[in-house]
Amino acid sequence: MTSLNSHGIRFAFGTLTVLPVRVTRWDREAARAGMLCAPLAGLVAGLLSAAAGGLSLLLGSAPLLAAVASAAVPAALTRGLHLDGLADTADGLGSGKPADDALRIMKQSDIGPFGVITLLFVLLAQVAALAELYGRGWAYGAVAAAVAAVTARLALTLASRRGVPPARPEGLGAAVAGTVTGRGAVAVGAVVVAGCAGAGALLGGYGALHHALAAVAALGVAQLLLRHCVRRFGGVTGDVFGALAETAATAALVALTFG
Description:
Layout: H1 2-16, H2 28-36, H3 38-58, H4 63-77, H5 81-95, H6 99-107, H7 113-136, H8 138-159, H9 172-176, H10 182-201, H11 207-233, H12 238-257
Helix pairs in contact: 1-2, 1-3, 3-4, 3-8, 4-7, 4-8, 5-6, 5-7, 5-12, 7-8, 7-12, 8-10, 8-11, 8-12, 10-11, 11-12
């Protein structure tokens, strides 16, 4: 079990970040462990994102520049793969074509108009939300960046649960689809939401409830997108996973600006 957990952590960091971690196993068991560990990769990305924003403020920048720094770190840590997946998924959904044709559009290297528009508004929403939160204080922005990143990777854990099929027989989607048990997904979800509540509690007041509800709301939005993609494409792909991560992160950040 210890060895499998080690392979799972390698799988999570090796597939969800560009950190120099070598994936030593690429089988269903390692994929299951990796997707259960996905929020851990999100936590590292979130802490680095928070550090970038906090350092920017410490050096005297405005909240807007701190927000840009925070938003740039997760993109850099994935080489933009999640954003690329978001754009490709938007092009596939926006095409209105049958599943096979839509999947073919998603595999093309260029980005269509639906993808460009979606990327524009998602990144604007992320930066705007982070700028408002950093404007309230560095701690609000830093906690939000970490919560958003962890919630984004938890959305991938939930999308890997049994009953969610792959849309293609190859690729990351096929490797991880259906690997996580329902019990495992619920357990990891409970730990992550509790962790978000704990982080929010550091801000006082209703911070614990606020951050827990923001995580739950973000996961709900991601699940709606997942259901739509499964219905349209017949399952999940690596691009869909990227879209789910960016959608959950954006929804969490926007939810944290309310109240």
